[in-house]
Amino acid sequence: MNTVTETDGIREVIIIGSGPAGYTAALYTARAELKPLVFGGAIFVGGALTTTTEVENFPGFPEGVDGPVLMENMRAQAEKFGAEMVDDDIVEVDLTGDIKTVTDAAGTVHRAKTVIVATGSGYRKLNLPSEDELSGRGVSWCATCDGFFFRDRDIVVVGGGDTAMEEATFLTRFARSVTVVHRRSVLRASQVMQNRAFADDKISFAFDSEIAEIKEEDSKLAGVVLRDVLTGKTRDLGVTGLFIAIGHDPRTELFAGQLDLDAAGYLKVASPSTRTNLPGVFGAGDVVDHIYRQAITAAGSGCTAALDAERYLAALTDTKKITDANKSTVTV
Ligand SMILES: Cc1cc2nc3c(=O)[nH]c(=O)nc-3n(C[C@H](O)[C@H](O)[C@H](O)COP(=O)(O)OP(=O)(O)OC[C@H]3O[C@@H](n4cnc5c(N)ncnc54)[C@H](O)[C@@H]3O)c2cc1C
């Protein structure tokens, strides 16, 4: 058990998360001279983009940019203006009062007037050998991000919900063929999404099936083995693309009971602002967004959260000035 120590002083802003949302919030609050303290996580510093190679859709990089390089640059830019980075996890929070407290894994309690939550969400995995190693080498969780790299390829999409249908339909723009693999005999997707997928000549379906094995050759995806869940029979599928669309898990366990979450666990904000149900607490990036989930949308909402935090702090200062002025005019 760590010894709990408390830092002196109260910060203007603490940011939890070091993905595009967290680093952008850090840049904006640092340039507003709010001296943000950023907790980036012990293992996952830089967020989801550090697990990919080429990013071709972040504006400003006509030749594309390596995911880890983009994140290092975002970090350096925020640090240049005074953001303080701590590569550690936050393990406990109390966000309910005027002064929020967050406790890091070393047991130190940090206090702030505002907190920006930008903890992202994790893609659900099949948990098969080679799945992680082949990320960006044939295995993907995001058609919008990677579809372009799969021209004229045979692709398999795993999942039966709206996201899987959307990914499959989108991928037909590039792919030669798309096989949707689903564990059940009926899809979970809405009827309109199902109809669109069924009507697409490039899409075929493997129902009652799951991926039993991911094949690898020269550090690239070289096919998958499908297993019929009813008969147990297996068969090879010669694909060079595997898109996994079985859902996401927003990282909100830490905030449950304090911040309002939707049924899927995403942080609820008063859109288009980033305000949560608690004054002084803001949510940004994929921890809020279950629809778009892109680096640029996460960065955009990180900016919004920073501006919301700035305005909240300015209003606090105004209120204090008025209270102080009222006190000084009271005659006894
Ligand atoms: C393989 C892959 C490829 C992708 N390719 C693209 C692409 O080409 N283009 C594109 O636009 N998007 C792409 N995306 C999506 C993009 O990465 C995400 O939309 C984006 O990173 C979300 O940013 P975020 O800041 O909300 O969260 P994340 O990037 O997920 O960052 C969350 C951060 O929170 C931190 N954290 C979590 N819990 C705690 C805690 N308790 N304490 C402290 N820190 C914590 C983590 O360490 C992490 O730093 C890709 C995603 C993946 C996985």
TrEMBL record:
* Keyword field: Disulfide bond, FAD, Flavoprotein, NADP, Oxidoreductase, Redox-active center
* Signal peptide (from-to): none
Q: Which PROSITE patterns match?
A: PYRIDINE_REDOX_2
Q: Name one Pfam family in it.
A: Pyr_redox_2
Q: Which reaction does it catalyse?
A: [thioredoxin]-dithiol + NADP(+) = [thioredoxin]-disulfide + NADPH + H(+)
Q: Give EC number(s), comma-separated.
A: 1.8.1.9
Q: How is the cofactor bound?
A: Binds 1 FAD per subunit.
Describe the location of the FAD/NAD(P)-binding domain by residue ranges: 12-302
Q: Which Gene3D superfamilies match?
A: FAD/NAD(P)-binding domain (3.50.50.60)
Question: Per its Swiss-Prot or TrEMBL entry, what cofactor is needed?
Answer: FAD
Q: Which family does it belong to?
A: Belongs to the class-II pyridine nucleotide-disulfide oxidoreductase family.
Under which name does UniProt file this protein?
Thioredoxin reductase
Quaternary structure, per UniProt, is:
Homodimer.
Enzyme class name: oxidoreductase
The UniProt entry, under InterPro entries, shows:
FAD/NAD-bd_sf, FAD/NAD-binding_dom, Ferredoxin-NADP_redctase_2, Pyr_nucl-diS_OxRdtase_2_AS, Thioredox_Rdtase
The Gene Ontology terms for molecular function here are: thioredoxin-disulfide reductase (NADPH) activity
